[in-house]
Design brief:
The complex is a heterodimer of chains A (130) and B (90). In chain A, 69% of the residues lie in helices and 3% in strands. In chain A, α4 packs across α5. By secondary structure, chain A is mainly alpha-helical. Classes of the chains: A mainly alpha (130), B alpha+beta (90). At the A-B interface, α5 of A face α2 of B.
Amino acid sequence: MYKIGEITKKTGMSADTLRYYEKYGLLIDISRNSSGIRLYTDKDISKLKFIKRAQRMNFSLEEIKNLLSMRENPQHAKNSVRQLTADKLKNIEEQLTDLSTLQNELKLLLNLCRGSEDGCPIIEDIDSDT
Amino acid sequence: MSIKVEIFSSPNCSACGQASKTLEKLANEIGDDKIQWRKADVIEEIDLAVSLGILSTPSIVIDNVLVFSGLPSIKTLREELLYRLDKKEA
């Protein structure tokens, strides 16, 4: 079990954020010790990592809440939550395709740079930073 | 029956000119009617190049499939062209 300070270090999230997530219902059943101090489990850390990833994908807190319920009990998820999960998966797959294309384009450009006898501003910038 | 061959090249690519010469020679040898080839500038056609999986030049694409990244020997390229022609005619 971890106190809130340890969780902030592990996740990079502030204590206020953690308390807000609990109030919003993203984190449920956070236990307390006899002094009323919140104690988090490894499962809570896993949830927080999921929330962080989903936020990077610009999912709303409400969407994340629904996805967490699916994550908790996929067999008994409501149809609307299943649909949301499928939609988000499609969205991620499209972004992965875009990212992969961009990645290959940048790789190609860097490789072309390396073949240039006139030097390459991109490579020179990288070299000057190191 | 013919195959379409594209050489993707870029400025300052020392092997690209050699790749074109090699292909031109093989097209003459095998038959211009059987080898429809062209030289493509990778920067001018970057979307196509990326969609084909090209990451360096020269790259040789046969019938819309990236087959060689880099310059193969004339023997290897000849064998590949003949193999693909045979496959198409079969």
